[in-house]
Amino acid sequence: MSNVECPCGQGEYEQCCQPLHLGQSRAQSATQLMRSRYSAFAKQQIDYIVQTTALGQQQALDVAAIAEWSRSNQWLKLDVVQANEKLDKNHAMVEFKAHYHDGTSPQIHHEISHFVKHAEAWYFLDPTTEMQITMKQACICAITAEAMTGALSAGRRSMDWFGVVIIACVTALGGGSVRDVLLGHYPLTWVKHPEYLMLTCFAAFMTILIAKWMRHLRNIFLVLDALGLIGFTIIGCQIALEMGHGFVVSAVAGVLTGVSGGILRDILCNDVPLVFRRELYASISFVAVIFYWGCIQLGLSLELTVISTLIFGFSLRLIAIYFGLEMPKFIYQDDDEQSASSKDAS
């Protein structure tokens, strides 16, 4: 049998990238994965391209476009410019040049790719996979709702307009910033999408203008906060999944994104944060994460998963508010405090 050179240029295809494409072994480094993906394009192994993309990004891939790009080009050679296999414990970077002919002229695709390691397997982080329309809608709803809760909290403390805007921005963007810093997700979401910062400021000023017509502000505050809580929980969970993290990290990212902005808001407004009170709050965020993860495992579309989780979590939070459902309270007193309490009682 004739020996066929591997498209990645590292030896015979049968001994090089073919075992990876067949699932007989898996890449031991980000560089090896990148080489095997180049070979997959040359060999039109589209399933391998999809399977080695970050787990949370796979549904967003345009598989037909990938297949067409793979088929329509003649793949010439691959040059690895540089690689950093240890950006941190689970992330790596590879810079490469892919040489190909598009049928008209030779072309060079120069890219700096990032990879993430999850469950001892490397995955490619696709920079072309933008937030889908459903996630953008959830993000817009959550930012608007939380910005309004921040503005209302600032208004209850009689802050000036600048203070209102600052509290609104901290509330709407603080949770996502905390998540991005902890996950190493850069640039920060509001830096990458400055329109979210503008939306926050607009929501704050709109709240100032319409507040005098908003009766029952407490109820409006709780409803908006519930919407923001679940919306940000979904976004945080999805971003962690897109980075290749599993359930535990995604759950933590979702809950942190959901509750951190509210914690910062309440602290700056000298209130006890909602999450630290007896009512169900962070626990509902965690239940929403479980529901979201379950929908993904069932193979539901991203749109249906987001909408279902938003309705489920939002309804659960409103039920908890209406019926006054609470977490068990932990009360601890040392011997001196118990003695003092007994004397006071007597």
Query: Based on CA inertia axes, which overall geometry fits?
Result: elongated
Most strands sheet: 4 strands, antiparallel
Helix content: 55-70%
Cα gyration radius (Å): 25 Å
Structural class: alpha+beta
Descriptive report:
This protein has 346 residues and is α+β, with helices and mostly antiparallel strands. It has two domains: 18-125, Roll (Nuclear Transport Factor 2, Chain: A), CATH 3.10.450.50; 133-323, no CATH class. It has helices spanning 18-21, 30-43, 46-51, 63-72, 133-156, 161-183, 189-192, 194-210, 217-242, 247-268, 282-297, 302-323, 335-345, and strands at 74-88, 91-101, 106-118, 121-125. Strands 1-2-3-4 form a four-stranded antiparallel sheet, with helices on one face. Strand 3 and strand 4 (121-125) form a beta hairpin. Helix 6 (161-183) runs antiparallel to helix 8 (194-210) and helix 9 packs antiparallel against helix 12 (302-323). The chain starts with 17 loop residues before the first helix and ends with a helix. It is found in: Cell membrane.
